[in-house]
Amino acid sequence: MCGIAGFWSQKPLQHNQIDHLKAMTASLHHRGPDGYGFHMDEKNGLGMGHARLSIIDLETGDQPLYSQNNDLVLTANGEFYDYKRIRTNLRLEGFRFTTKSDSEIAIPLYRKHGLDFVEHLRGEFAFSLYDKKQDRLILVRDRFGVKPLFYYNGPQGFYYGSEIKALFAHPEVPRELSKEGVLHQMMHTMVPGTTAFENIHALEPGHLLIVQRKSTGFEIRDHKYWDVDFPRDADRDDGKSADHHVQQVRDSLMEAVALRLEADVPVGCYLSGGIDSCSMLGLASTMQQSPVKAFTISFDHSDYDESKIARGMAEATGADQEEIFLAADELYGQNFLQTMYHAERTFYNTLGVAKWCMSKRVNECGYRVVVTGEGSDELFGGYPALKRDMLKYTYANDPSRLSELEKSNEIFKGAILAENPVTHPALEAACGFTPSWIQSWIQTLGIARPLLSDDLAAELKGYDPIEAIAASFDQSQLEGRHVLDKAQYTWIKTMLECQILNWGGDRVDMANSMESRPAFLDHYVADVAKVIPPGLRIKGNTEKWVLREAMKNILPEVLYKREKFAFMAPPGHTSTSKQMALKELTDQFLSQEKVKEVGFFSPKKISQFMEDYRNDKDPVSLVRKDALLNHLLGFHILHDMFVKEKRTELLSV
């Protein structure tokens, strides 16, 4: 696990360009505190940097890595699993290796398979590979986007990095917030491939980018090499028994977890009170000889705290549990600012702050790798919104069955669940319905858009962010699919990457030099999950039914029978102490002077929004306003940190 950064200029490099590369790489120190490596090709205008976090091959795994004749150069972030078997097969075919690093297998695989080499890589990764003979730079991102990778194609050259801050460390990369992006930040749903910043792009999951030098500039080609690809209804083989699917899930997960326990340093587990992380701990504790170190978050609000179940799971598996209790003052203040700096996008809930605090504690305990449960809900149908869509489809003629869902997860209405149905024509056209997961964010957008300044509102009058999101979906992956498949697919292509794997995953973990490994997002597990019939993924009113059955003998009975509980931190309105902590941030970043300085919102309208928020007594309305308030704060913090370059001043405390 590391950080990568680099640039490619049309002109030969000047001697001072090494300083720019060092600055870009140094900005990723938190991702790779164990050493830097650089490749400078002044004649060809290429600079490649690497910040290393040593996990595998502690002695000889420094990067960049080179082919035998130095015509291929690699810098990689992440892990390639099953690398020992792949390396041995390649060695038998005559390829030679100079390290024991998992990353090195990418070089001979590319030599053997060309651009199809990505199909032979398994894991979570983002890397750059320069081919001197072809004079092309290849950027690759893993199938689900666990590892981040960003780029900017400017008039002076092409720039890339594991995080946006690495791009901004180069003086030729402009710092400007995206005007369309502000609407997506407020409604929490990004268009795939976009960021909060103007002209800064995210390489999409399952894509590779080929940057080819031409006499007139760089030609850039984006190629999708993988997608979830749920089976069409007409092609679905539902003849397999439920037991078959249960066994397939067991087998694939056992292998995925075993591969993610491979490291030259100790590996722990994140442990909440949910099925996903408990399954990971149950499998890991059986596979490992020594007790597994488990890390749990505990909140100061009983409605959001799952630590009791987590404690029971830790006791049942003999895990060495570390419990991190988080109160209001720890979810705001400097921790909020730190999380925003690393996330580089806004977030609706302080769960990201809680995860940042937990990864800090993991690091303090001497661990730099954990296995996590992210991705299970996406693949096995776990979220309340997915179940809502499934039940509406299944029981279209029996609305009374939906009341079972409406009685639960009440505290999440206004954020992850809409209290009333919402539709949008672009989504209706793309999916045949408006997925429940986005309905609440459409409602949030309805509150946020009127807060824009008059000038920006006029400029964005013709821009519909929902239409842009719908247009980004590959229609061939939606046609002929089941309602549940469509709901899962659209969530995976948007919220999984920009939320779960961003401020809920890599960005807050690597902020503290700690690698998270989500075994559920192994693409072989995905291949098993996507063919499970929708009626078994969500069976009646039971979400993740096949996964429950597969893991039932390692889960506590209370968890096996328990309905999905969305993991969130207590919102700001839920206690006086949180309101006080939140007020310190709003006084600093949402004052009339600050809002006017940034210029994207109307100071008068923001002031009225804050007054309405303080006077609101409706819990559903407050949950939505809490989410929007976090986004508004985050947007103005991003402006100060990255556009105004006040990061040192803000984080100096």
TrEMBL record:
Family, per entry: Belongs to the asparagine synthetase family.
UniProt: ATP binding residues: I297
Keyword annotations from UniProtKB, A to Z: Amino-acid biosynthesis, Asparagine biosynthesis, ATP-binding, Glutamine amidotransferase, Nucleotide-binding
PROSITE patterns: GATASE_TYPE_2 (PS51278)
BP term (GO), one: asparagine biosynthetic process
GO molecular function: asparagine synthase (glutamine-hydrolyzing) activity; ATP binding
Keyword Hydrolase: no
Reactions listed under catalytic activity: L-aspartate + L-glutamine + ATP + H2O = L-asparagine + L-glutamate + AMP + diphosphate + H(+)
Pfam families according to UniProt: Asn_synthase, GATase_7
EC number: 6.3.5.4
Pathway: Amino-acid biosynthesis; L-asparagine biosynthesis; L-asparagine from L-aspartate (L-Gln route): step 1/1
UniProt domain Glutamine amidotransferase type-2: residue ranges: 2-214
Encoding gene (name): asnB
Binding locations of L-glutamine: D102
Protein name: asparagine synthase (glutamine-hydrolyzing)
Active-site residues from the entry: C2
Keyword Nucleotide-binding tagged: yes
SUPFAM superfamilies linked to this entry: Adenine nucleotide alpha hydrolases-like, N-terminal nucleophile aminohydrolases (Ntn hydrolases)
GO cellular component: cytosol
Annotated positions for site Important for beta-aspartyl-AMP intermediate formation: E374
InterPro entries noted in UniProt: Asn_synth_AEB, Asn_synthase, ASN_synthetase/amidase, AsnB_N, GATase_2_dom, Ntn_hydrolases_N, Rossmann-like_a/b/a_fold
